[in-house]
Design goal:
Blueprint (H helix, E strand, L loop, with lengths): L12 H13 L16 H11 L4 H7 L5 E7 L6 H7 L4 H8 L12 E7 L8 E7 L4 E8 L2 E8 L3 E10 L4 H7 L4 H10 L15 E11 L2 E15 L2 E8 L2 E3 L35 H4 L2 E4 L5 E3 L4 E8 L5 E6 L4 E8 L1 E2 L8 E2 L4 E4 L10 E8 L2 E3 L17 H26 L1
Antiparallel strand pairs: 1-2, 2-3, 3-4, 4-5, 6-7, 7-8, 8-9, 9-10, 11-19, 12-18, 13-14, 13-17, 14-15, 15-19, 16-18, 19-20
Helix pairs in contact: 1-2
Bound molecules: zinc ion.
Length: 428
């Protein structure tokens, strides 16, 4: 980001001046251009220096008055170092060394945007005036020049929370739809989680599905910081509309029924890598009937979660199943997870697991030609198609809380209705 301006000291010699020429020739091109001059090629340097002579810095300054300082912004990348980031902000050597000694710098995380004002021109080139970024725990870290020293302070950030109402049409995947509608990934993941007991997003999502979502968006200085909670959402999957209203930390249908059932539809959570249509059947088992389970194609190492609370009945190797975990949920329901590459922490026979706990990771142990999860859902010992089995429901809104819930739900419903009506109007 940010335009870079080459240094104005002439003491750098031929290399420095050659770099200036190249940069000016491209009219404020990025500084990286300067590196095309090989430092170890003396002959080339001389040639460049010779060409350079008629072009002086004064000419450039006469055309464009040189500003005294620049404000630049850059993002801390994954795998970035503080040194590299600070150098991209054009902070000079002296201040860079001082900055690296400040412990506040350790609050910088990948993805964080850092803004800095750095002086330009003559003897002040590269001198830092101030630098600021959002630290953890919603604070702003500000480093300022006070006399000759750089002083750091940490202040609480003014975070503004708004609600956003957006809707999207699914064409290829949930994430692509969310992206097209300007809905953050974090909201798409929450959405998949809210409807995790009603929709298997790996296998049931279809082109033409649509959703509307009301969620919180936190911002600082008018710049989006991160998404907050999903307040309410509507999802139309294969013509069936599900509505979820957030209330007291849970999601309920308009009638107060809990959206979260005792079992989740899918043992794999939705992520960018595992999302999309066409969870193909494993070539070894073409029909569900033939092999009594469902196969989820997923990259090796993908987390496999318990679809419901229960007790591990078996965790170990078993013939064609390879590494297998069997979870018993109650006297009638049990689930089987096969071909695992490895087991989750603490997953052994008789271990208690909660819904969403990691049982293991997708692999291809046993009778499997590629990495996939073989999943079985058994009712009273007989394998059943998990998509067609009615699931036991979670706890609904308590009777005494219903009046409060209804009032709250009405406001949320009104907003979703507003968007639904607008959508219909747009389609007509
Ligand atoms: Zn299978």
């Amino acid at each position: 980001m940010g335009m870079d301006v080459p240094g104005r000291k002439t003491s750098g010699g031929a290399l420095r001046r050659a770099a200036l020429l190249v940069t000016f020739a491209l009219s404020s091109a990025v500084a990286a251009v300067a590196t095309i001059v090989p430092a170890n090629n003396a002959e080339l340097l001389l040639a460049k220096a010779a060409v350079l002579e008629p072009v002086t810095i004064r000419v450039e300054e006469a055309v464009l008055p040189s500003p005294l300082s620049y404000v630049r912004e850059d993002r801390m990348q994954r795998g970035d170092t503080f040194q590299r980031l600070l150098a991209r902000l054009a902070i000079g050597e002296t201040d860079l060394r001082q900055l690296l000694r400040l412990r506040e710098l350790r609050l910088l995380r990948p993805g964080t945007i850092v803004a800095a004002e750095v002086r330009a021109g003559a003897e002040h080139e590269g001198e830092l005036l101030w630098l600021s970024f959002l630290g953890g725990r919603d604070t702003t870290v500000r480093i300022e020049r006070v006399g000759g020293r750089l002083v750091a302070s940490e202040q609480r950030t003014q975070i503004v929370t708004r609600t956003e109402l957006k809707s999207a049409l699914v064409r290829s995947s949930l994430f692509a739809a969310a992206e097209a509608a300007g809905v953050p990934d974090a909201v798409a993941i929450q959405l998949a989680d809210v409807f995790a007991s009603d929709i298997d997003f790996h296998r049931e999502l279809r082109q033409g599905d649509r959703f509307s979502v009301l969620y919180e968006m936190h911002s600082v200085d008018g710049r989006p910081l991160r998404a907050g909670r999903v307040l309410a959402a509507e999802f139309t999957n294969q013509g069936r509309t599900h509505r979820a209203l957030g209330y007291a930390g849970n999601y309920y249908a308009a009638d107060g029924k809990n959206m979260r059932k005792a079992l989740l539809r899918s043992p794999l959570e939705l992520s960018r890598v595992s999302s999309g249509f066409g969870m193909r059947m494993h070539p070894l088992h073409k029909a569900w009937r033939a092999h009594q389970g469902v196969d989820y194609a997923a990259p090796s190492g993908t987390r496999v979660r318990a679809v419901g609370d229960g007790i591990v009945e078996f965790a170990g190797r078993q013939g064609g199943y390879g590494n297998l975990v069997i979870v018993r949920h109650d006297s009638r329901h049990s689930t089987w997870y096969a071909h695992l590459k490895a087991f989750g922490r603490g997953i052994r026979s008789q271990a208690r697991v909660a819904q969403g706990d990691t049982l293991g990771f997708v692999g291809q142990t046993g009778w499997a030609t590629g990495a996939h999860l073989h999943y079985e859902f058994r009712v009273a010992g007989a394998a059943r198609n998990p998509l067609s089995v009615p699931l036991p429901a979670g706890t609904p809104v308590a009777r005494q809380d219903m009046p409060a819930f209804r009032a709250h739900a009405q406001a949320l419903t009104a907003q979703l209705d507003l968007l639904a009506n607008r959508q219909v109007a747009a389609l007509e």
